Amino acid sequence: MPTFLAALLRAVLCLATLRAAMAAEPVAVILDHPRIFLTRAGLSALAARCAGAGAADYAALKRAADDAVRAGAIRWIDNKWAVPHDLLSCALVYLIEHQAGRPAQAYVDLIIRAWGDGTMIADQRGSAFGYHAIAYDWIHDALDPAQRRRYGDALGTWLTWYTGQAAITLQDGAWEYNQTWGPSHLNVMHSRDAITQKLLIALAIGGAGTAHQADAERFLASWATRIPNECIPAFDRMGGAWAESHGHGSYGPITVIPYAFEAWRTATGQNLFTAGRPWGFLPEMSHWLTWLRVPHTGRHAFIDDGGGDRYAGFASSAPLVARALRDPLAQWQALQARADGQYADGPWAALLIDPTVTASSPAQLGLPLAYLFAGAGNVFMRSAWDDPDATWAFFGAGPHFAGHQHDDEGHFLISRRGGLVGRGGGMGGNDEDFYWGGSLVFNLVTIFDPDEHPRRATRNENDGGLLRHVYEDQRCARGSITAYRDRATYTYSAADLTAGYAPAKARSVTRQFLYLRGRPGMDEYVVVLDRVVSTRAAFAKHFMLHVPAEPAQGGTVEELVPGHVARTSGVGLITTWLSRPDDFGPDAKVLSSGRSRMFMRTLLPAPASITRRGGEGHRNWGHPLEPTAQYDHTGPRRGEPPYCDWRLEVAAPLAEQTLFLHVFQIADEAVTTMAPVVLAEDAQAVRLEIGTVEQRWRVALAVSGDLGGSVTAPGMAEAEPLPVAVETRAQYAVDATPAP
């Protein structure tokens, strides 16, 4: 390379004046190509691996590229909703074949024919502009100077897409919003700031002599400043659970945020994966996507608008997270994805797995049996790893970060050999199914103010539940985990949910969730205490619970709608039902054996009235006290998984202050009688004795003041006080308390 040209490239690419918040030296983009995910220095090792231990992965990649060359076409390159995998397969095969000294131009020629004069790259009606940038970087050295400028100019037109600026603007979305980063197809739909696509372009075209060099520099400067100073702290606040759940997370952020951070790392040498706290989004992502897996299917739980998948977009990015963080859990998931055939359509991603990273399963790592993702307020619990028959539970309460989050604070799920406590069945979109954006698909307490007028009320009338923040873009308080501790025998969580309800009707709403973890062969229990204070005694309160199988009610049952609605009233009522192993639908293989049984003992209020409602035509009923909602809120996707066809409505006598106290027993299917439960009350606490004499738990939960109490496990003489603060030292060696 001529000296003057090398000097020019250094001048335009070296961001000498920029310093990331945690970098001691200026950040500079390397001169050579490839820069994105791969470097020239690493090509020889990659080529050697493709000829050795990675031969099977490379054979699949080359077969895809060769098929495309023979067909003379790149599949899906004009499909706006698909990833053009053949484009990347051809570009990567070119790099490896060229490195090995074999003919490789045919792969480049196919891409050049597809790109033509560059119009299809720059077409703002639809273009996978992020993936075109990766391919451009990978075949850069095979292009002549005119082609580099032509296609680089086409790519450069995207640097001001949507915002009108070649910079990160956060226009119409925060760091925690999926469209800020871009979708997994890296196309125009649902791309606002499109940070990932623009970063890939700015890194790819730098130094190519395009008309957009200044814009590329401006965008890189914006990234180098704003990501360390603003984005990383925001991700630390949010934590490892994507704010919009693994539903909208899988559509983009779980895949494309690691793309962006890894492209920056390989192009500059600055590893921003490690810039945040241990509980930040990227360091904790692999843990979250592991904890989401429900044992009886190995698939992600139906939480918020996500669920039913096994990887949620992580298959493509897990190799990048694993190598950037040396993360054994991400590597384990990448190898699982390869074994499950997740790279069949996109074999290029399998070649990014770094074999020097050790893979370890949760059991091999000795992960705890419970985990708090403090930013989102997500608590996961289980009885064992590597056991499809294990018990699994979720409890959540956290702030609203971004638009697509559903309002489900205080919601919980339980499974063992199938779903036991689920959310309202079926799926729906936020735009066409407003009922899905209300409270009655979740397991929480309603406070019915007949004069409340909620947002988004079309076919989603007053449900007595939480304020509806879905599709609001501003961060706001809804609920928070105020106490958490995990021990070998129990996991305890407590949440203040008051901010989630309209202040006109709720003075205080809290929920305490205590999972009593049994030893192998023992039954397990969950204790849930709700302390609810309304502004008026006339505001009726209900404890809502969704179950997948038709429950059997104790006491005298009054049939209101035969086969669908029945009511029983009394003190200490027991309700029971079986698990549903196929609750994830026919496409989800059931890994567990048999079924389990759940008993629910309603101890408070006393007396209580319990309505069982469900079955065909009654699955999605409105609130029982809202006259305009007395119909089945069905929709196009209500029959899809998760299957959860029944709802229990526990009604309390009218009073300003109400306690709901429930003990759930998780037992084998053959068990027909619930274990003994004895309740004693005083002004300070509810006190429980649960189980037989030989396996008796003693539990006390405070009914006023701090959300504390005590627990005594079977065989233990001394009660252990429950915490009134968050304890996460077992996770991080320090406690993670989310910033306000």
Unreliable segments (pLDDT under 50, ≥5 consecutive)? 1-25
Q: How much helix, percentage-wise, in residues? A: 25-40%
Alpha carbon gyration radius:
28 Å
Q: Would you give the CATH topology of the largest domain?
A: Beta-galactosidase, Chain A, domain 5
Oligomer: single chain
Question: Based on helices, strands and strand pairing, what is the structural class?
Answer: alpha+beta
Number of domains: 2
Secondary structure tally: strands: 28
Q: Termini, distance in Å?
A: 54 Å
Sheet having the most strands: 8 strands, antiparallel
Strand proportion, as a percent range, falls in 15-25%
Tell me, what is the CATH class of the largest domain? Mainly Beta
Report on the structure:
This protein has 740 residues and is of the alpha+beta class. It has two domains: 3-364, Chondroitin AC/alginate lyase (Glycosyltransferase, Alpha/alpha barrel), CATH 1.50.10; 368-731, Beta-galactosidase, Chain A, domain 5 (Distorted Sandwich). 27% of the residues lie in helices and 21% in strands. It contains 18 helices and 28 strands. It has an eight-stranded antiparallel β-sheet, with no helix packed on it. A six-stranded antiparallel β-sheet has the order 10-15-22-21-18-17, with no helix packed on it. A five-stranded antiparallel β-sheet has the order 5-6-7-8-9, covered by helices on one side. A hairpin with a 7-residue loop joins β13 and β14. α7 (129-139) packs parallel to α10. Residues 1-25 have low confidence and may be disordered.
